[in-house]
Amino acid sequence: MQDIEFNSMPDCSGFYRNGFPVAAVLLIFFFAGCTTTSWVVDDETARDYDSRTVVSDSVYFQQSGAPSPQNPVLELDFLLSTKAEYNEHLISRRYIQQYRPRYGYLALGMTGMGIGLYLANTSVIDADKLSTRDRALLNSAALSIGLASYFSMKPVGEARPAGEKRQLQKTGTIVEHDTIPAELPEDAAATLSIHRGDSVLVSDENLAFEENRLAVNIPEKSGLQQLDAGDTLSLDITVSYEEHRFRSRIPVSDFMQEFVVTDSSDVPVRSSPALISNNIIRHAGAESRFPFLTDLNDGWFRILKSGEAAYIQKEKVSRVWRVADVTESDHLVVQSDRPVFGDLEVERNLPDNQRTNPDAIAVIIANGTYEDPVRILPHADRVAELAASYFRDAAGLYSDNIVILEDMSRDDMLQFIDDGDSLKIGGRHLSAEESDFYFYYYGHAFTDEEDSLFLLPVDYDPGDREERYVSFEALADAIGALHTRSSLIVMDTDWSRASVFGQEVSGEIRGRDQAVDELSRKLTGGRENTALFWASEPGEISGPYSGPNDRVQYPYDLFTWYFFKSIQDGFRTAGEISDYLERNVPFTSRRLHDRSQNPLFFGNRDLILIPDTSEPEGGEDEQADMESLE
Fold this sequence. Notes:
Elements: H1 13-17, H2 19-31, E1 34-41, E2 46-63, E3 73-101, H3 103-121, H4 132-151, E4 153-181, E5 189-196, E6 199-208, E7 213-217, H5 218-222, E8 226-228, E9 235-241, E10 244-250, E11 257-262, E12 267-270, E13 280-284, E14 289-295, E15 300-305, E16 308-313, E17 317-322, E18 361-366, H6 380-393, E19 402-406, H7 410-418, E20 436-447, E21 453-455, E22 470-471, H8 472-480, E23 486-494, H9 506-524, E24 530-534, E25 544-546, E26 553-557, H10 558-568, H11 574-593, E27 600-603, H12 619-629
Parallel strand pairs: 18-19, 18-20, 20-23, 23-24
Antiparallel strand pairs: 1-3, 2-3, 3-4, 3-7, 5-6, 5-9, 8-17, 9-10, 11-14, 11-17, 12-13, 14-15, 15-16, 20-21, 21-22, 24-27, 25-26
Helix pairs in contact: 3-4, 8-9, 10-11
Region (Disordered): 610-630
Transmembrane segments: 20-41, 103-120
Protein name: Caspase domain-containing protein
């Protein structure tokens, strides 16, 4: 029987014997990384501070900053300046770079290495027939493949400086200037001298150092606190210490600020350079100071008021150089003896009518500065400002369509009445379909022995009264001749203080009541588009209104206050405003002054004087048309 020989499986005993160490090596290779260090030469050279050689040094005063009106101090530092020479060298720095394996290359290399080791240590290719030398070469080749794949690493991030550096060869030298505080003895003191032209203000005054610094408060040392605006002579300041000296010429503008100072009380500060009442920001008292900005060369100075530009008349102020005191509120603006416009309830939170009325015009006459001191109305300009504010904000007028005429003489008033265009701002032609007309008069009125009605101009002369007054009938005729959609006439008058005909008996007052009634009905009778208000009946005092607890007298009369308060409270028609006045003025006059004051109204009670802001522009008919289209 023939023997059958079976081929055995490849002998892997050598591979299996070495398998675990090989696997461990593979894992270490796969996950391990490495770091390297290198020295890199910098592009720039570095100086060797140990090679410092002093070339020269000097001591001197140096000014620190410049004086200003807000900080009028001249500051000087006493310094030592040194010129030193240093060697320059190339510098190399050490950097650390981290690497990690390229895992694709490593996997491929480890595979090749495994195959090589497998072939060299198994019987697959009859490795047992290989010589020891051949087997060693094959194993070495396999390991070389693995090592090559491992060491083909990639850098991780940027190289990090190790903080080590080395100086290389010398490349040259560099000279450097170094400035430090000069050394001074504890009791060191300089001398100060200040001259202004030929005047010696300070002569060799001791000035102590504070940590190598001198501080000269110019106004304090010189004694100059205020100069006339035309005085611009500079100061010559000299500071000396041993053989060292500092000289400087300081202009006045470097330590003083230019101000305007009010020469009298109650000076208006305005938002624009124009003599109108509705641009007054406040009234300043005497000796108020405002920082000066520019001279407008037309009678106005531009000034600074609470951080914003404002305007003031040149004739009411003086310009000065003065030390600026930033601790003083608003540069020491003295409060006037009356509150600022906007402080009172009736002057703020005005109705805001977004429906502008481009075809409406308003004329405000405010007569307050009467030549006869008994008849002066000190708050006429404020009343005009209040009226203008309401016509603009509540009635929707353009500011350009509101004219304020203050302190009108008889000739001014007659010309105003006779000139038809006076009642048409800018020559605007009034339209019966589109134009509303507002007229407000604040001043005195009276009736004569014949019960005729007159307005009192500011140049009224009691000694020549026959020629110094203006007929209300002429004004009424001029207003009545206007072609307007509506007309509002407000006669905010005082009768009793303007009485010029002696004692008034009850019969005369009744006659004057009748005269006012007849003339008023003549103006409004038969006109559905007219409303006329009088502040009081003839012979009655138009008394002042008082503030909280009746202790503070406001700059408005009772009628003025309640007329505009009614609009502020939302009343729109002439009848609503009239009823409001009848409820408040007589009662308040009796409570405050224990006397009667009865406002008068003539005209159409249903006339709408203030547009309703809640209605869409164009009115109810236009809204109805829009709804029908929808």
